[in-house]
Amino acid sequence: MSVETSADPHGEAELVASLLPEGGRVLDAGCGTGRVALRLAELGHPVVGVDADLSLLRVAADRNPRIPFWLSDLAELDIPQGIIGAGFDVVVLAGNAIPLLAPGTLDEVMCTLRGVLKPEGLVVAGLGLDAQHLPEGIPSVSLEDYDDACSGADLELVERYATWDRQPFDGGGYAVSVHRRAPARPTPVSRLRSLLHR
Questions:
Q1: In the list 70, 78, 117, 162, which could disulfide-bond 169, CB 3.0-4.6 Å?
Q2: E strand or H helix at 179, and its extent?
Q3: Separation of first and last alpha carbons in the chain
Q4: Is residue 26 helix, strand or coil?
Q5: Pairing between strand 174-181 and 155-161?
Q6: Can you tell me whether residue 173 is helix, strand or coil?
Q7: Inter-residue contact 127 to 1 (CB < 8 Å)
């Protein structure tokens, strides 16, 4: 599997850290063995890891028992409210977490992840777009399908790169996308009140 992380082995975590406010909270969604979560914790950010593979989570927890790692499908995100209630500044999906989702769950996953973001929160995802950038036998997810799922979850595209070190995206086989939780749209009543009080 080829993952475009740049020459920096911690490229994913470094990009996420650059987008965070001081003390910003991160959900490492599809955290696997915790590589990104561990680096973010080293950089001083509160992080929660979640994955559907118990064997990988055991490795992550052994590497740093102080980080909360949870077993859950991303479509359900069955994590205690006390852990996710305050919301996250960034949700990161590294290591081809998107193509590895269960078939047919992308829309639900993006809606669920959007629901745990803070009002100005970001979703940062890297995904292989062709066989060269994916594990063997894993079908690709097109950028159009990914963007449609984000749009359906009220997430808007902010930036797109070819690598985690922000090389410009030129239509190649790997993309790193940054989506933002869209601002709340005024309801018709609040819009009317706004017009009346001008």
A1: 162
A2: strand 174-181
A3: 57
A4: strand
A5: antiparallel
A6: coil
A7: no
pTM of the predicted protein model: 0.88
What is the number of residues in the chain?
Answer: 198
Q: How far is CA 18 from CA 15, 43, 117, 165, 194, in A?
A: 5, 11, 17, 11, 36
Tens place of pLDDT per residue across the chain (198 aa):
344 444 465 799 999 999 999 999 999 999 999 999 999 999 999 999 999 999 999 999 999 999 999 999 999 999 999 888 889 999 999 988 999 999 999 999 999 999 999 999 999 999 999 999 998 889 899 999 999 999 999 999 999 999 999 999 999 999 999 999 988 766 565 555 655 555
Tokens of 173: 């086989």
Residue whose entry in the numeric block shows the structure tokens 């086989």: 173
Q: Give the whole-angstrom CA distance, residue 37 versus residue 43.
A: 10
Cβ contacts of 197 within 8 Å, gap of 6 or more? none
Query: Element (H or E) spanning 63, and its range?
Result: helix 54-63
Encode 80-110 in three state secondary structure: CHHHHCCCEEEEEECCCCCCCCCCCCHHHHH
Query: Phi and psi for 94 in degrees, rounded to 5?
Result: -105, 175
The torsion angle over the Cα atoms of residues 26, 180, 113 and 94, rounded to 10 degrees, is: -60
What's the order of all strands across the beta sheet hosting 117-128? Answer: 69-71, 47-51, 26-29, 88-93, 117-128, 174-181, 155-161
The DSSP output letter for 140 is: P
CA distance 9 to 5: 7
